[in-house]
Design brief:
By secondary structure, the chain is an alpha/beta fold. The strands form two sheets. Strands 1, 2, 3, 4, 5, 6, 7 and 8 form an eight-stranded mixed beta sheet that branches. The protein has a three-stranded antiparallel beta sheet with strand order 9-11-10. The protein is globular.
Length: 475
């Protein structure tokens, strides 16, 4: 009975591996899950004491449960049956397709990842790249938003940095759930974005089943009180102006809103501006339909060159941050109050009337967001240069022009950011950014002139505040 047993080496290794896996599954993983869950619960309790907009139970629900709720939403069940009948598919095939869409859309929010990891990354990146400034903020109005309200931040879209910048500034109020385009569905960015509570959107999808699944998730999230952030323009501005509205997500939220329900739907207008938009040349080039489109290889090479060039400048002590990034928060707009003031009952309107009502509210929200876009030094200077595209102007004339533009903006109720409360310094900052980027050149006589080939880029920055001046463009 005490004789030894001889085993082949491969079998011994296999037994050891299986034993290790069993120990990991039965002992280590449950302990690790308990530890991580305990830390996450502590973070949630701490955040709900500190945040003005609490993390609602919907946001903390397990992802699979949310997917199931979306799939068995009556509207989705009806759409699955319709698709199966119209396309000659089996019901289980249509349901599987809807489930793929739901898994693509539904996020997996992790409070610890958002506030302990994501927030620090966003804060660090925003501060490294820009001098971040909070412009106008209706603090009184924001403080009066009910804690159980579904809050939606409605923003203009200048740069992909918008996601980072606003998440950083709003973190003391709540966690934001963004609608993110398909560009971000790459590993490992996709998993990180889902953990931050964002959901992916196919902006140009014509599949009715996909649209129904997306509408179901947005409706459930809104009804569940999830704080969201949307860009009604649907994409980045390519010429600096505010873009026409796309009412998809906004429509999903409003069509399902019940003004008699306990939870109100409150929109907060947000205006964003930069002294330098990282993607500006790509955007301006994309607005010119006559110019040839450049491929992904060129884009990757350009991005790599941009990063390396700035690292080289930093190593030599000659790197400047990309100027100021400013964000303004307007007066919150209650959907319940808006509908009451305008005697609207969306539940009893036909489809055309509903679309018209949503379009009007969307225009109101974007006008409010546009009104709180900060006028930053580069936009002010670019406006003067594009108003005098063929002239060489002195620094004194530039200062006079910028002061005149700023005065005109303030007279219209716009918000001008003057760094250090010093208008002369604001001129210096704006001019320095334009000359460093070679958008403006200095002549031998000490005069400044816009470079003809850079006028489209100068107009791009001037256009960011053109609507505040009542102008179609800065040129």
């Amino acid at each position: 009975m005490s004789d030894g047993v001889t085993l082949p080496l491969w079998l011994f290794v296999l037994i050891c591996v299986l034993a290790a896996l069993a120990a990991l599954d039965r002992l280590l993983l449950p302990s690790a899950r308990w530890y991580l869950r305990r830390r996450a619960n502590r973070v949630i309790e701490e955040l709900n004491e500190r945040l003005s907009l609490r993390l609602q139970p919907f946001k903390l629900t397990k992802r699979q449960a949310l997917i199931d709720r979306v799939l068995y939403d009556p509207a989705v069940v009806e759409a699955v049956a319709a698709v199966a009948g119209e396309r000659g598919m089996r019901h289980d095939e249509a349901l599987a397709k809807a489930e793929r869409y739901a898994r693509e859309i539904v996020p997996s929010f992790n409070a610890y990842a958002y506030f302990r990891v994501g927030y620090r990354i966003a804060r660090g990146l925003a501060r490294i790249l820009y001098r971040v400034r909070l412009g106008y903020a209706d603090e009184a109005g924001l403080s009066e938003v009910p804690r159980n309200a579904s809050v939606v931040f409605v923003m203009n879209h200048r740069s992909n940095m918008d996601y980072v910048l606003v998440a950083y500034l709003v973190a003391r109020h709540s966690a934001l759930s963004y609608a993110v385009g398909e560009w971000a569905r790459v590993w490992p960015l996709q998993a990180l974005i889902r953990a931050m509570g964002a959901y992916f959107v196919r902006r140009d999808s014509g599949d009715p089943l996909y649209r129904r699944v997306l509408a179901s998730y947005v409706r459930l999230a809104t009804a569940g009180g999830v704080t969201q952030a949307i860009y009604p323009e649907g994409g980045l501005s390519r010429d600096g102006r505010l873009r026409p509205l796309k009412l998809g997500l906004l429509g999903y939220m409003l069509k399902s809103f019940d003004p008699e329900a306990e939870r109100d739907l409150v929109f907060v207008p947000v205006g964003i501006n930069y002294d330098r938009v990282l993607e500006d040349r790509t955007l301006v080039r994309g607005a010119d339909r006559e110019r040839a489109r450049r491929g992904k290889v060129f884009m990757v090479a350009t991005l790599s060159g941009f990063v390396l060039r700035n690292l080289w400048l930093a190593a030599r002590g000659r790197w400047y941050r990309f100027g100021y990034a400013g964000v303004g928060f307007g007066t919150p707009i209650s959907t319940r109050d808006y509908l009451r003031r305008n005697s609207l009952d969306l539940a009893h309107l036909d489809e055309s009337a509903i679309h018209t009502a949503i379009e009007r509210l969307g225009a109101t929200l974007m006008a409010a967001a546009g009104q709180v876009i900060p006028a930053l030094p580069v936009a002010l200077a670019a406006t003067v240069f594009t108003n005098h595209p063929d002239e060489a102007i002195s620094e004194i004339e530039l200062k006079a022009g910028i002061h005149a533009v700023a005065h005109g903006l303030e007279a219209r109720g716009a918000h001008v950011y003057v760094p250090r409360a010093n208008q002369d310094y604001a001129v210096t900052v704006g001019l320095r950014m334009l000359t460093l980027r070679h958008l403006v050149t200095e002549t031998a006589e000490g005069l400044y002139r816009a470079r003809a080939e850079e006028l489209p880029l100068l107009r791009y920055y001037a256009n960011s505040i053109a609507h505040l001046l009542g102008a179609e463009s800065g040129g």
